[in-house]
Design the sequence.
């Protein structure tokens, strides 16, 4: 003889009906073309542009970075001379 837990059966049936309804609504929205109107946006407009030169100091020694590091090094040396 098989024992049936009617409470569990009721809960599972209600869950399946709910999931079925949600899936049906999702499919109908998809088929009708109802969607959020997405628009492209330039994310660079949200970010501030940093104009400071990029450089790298290791143990107090300027080692530069990128193709313009020699110009940055000259600028750095000028600033250090004016500090002394």
Sequence:
């Amino acid at each position: 003889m098989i024992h049936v837990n009617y409470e569990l059966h009721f809960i599972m049936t209600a869950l399946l009906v709910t999931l079925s309804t949600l899936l049906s609504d999702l499919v109908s929205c998809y088929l009708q073309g109802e969607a959020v109107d997405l628009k492209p946006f330039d994310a660079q407009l949200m970010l501030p542009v940093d104009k400071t030169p990029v450089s790298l100091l290791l143990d107090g020694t300027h080692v530069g970075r990128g193709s313009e590091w020699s110009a940055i090094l000259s600028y750095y040396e000028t600033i250090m001379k004016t500090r002394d």
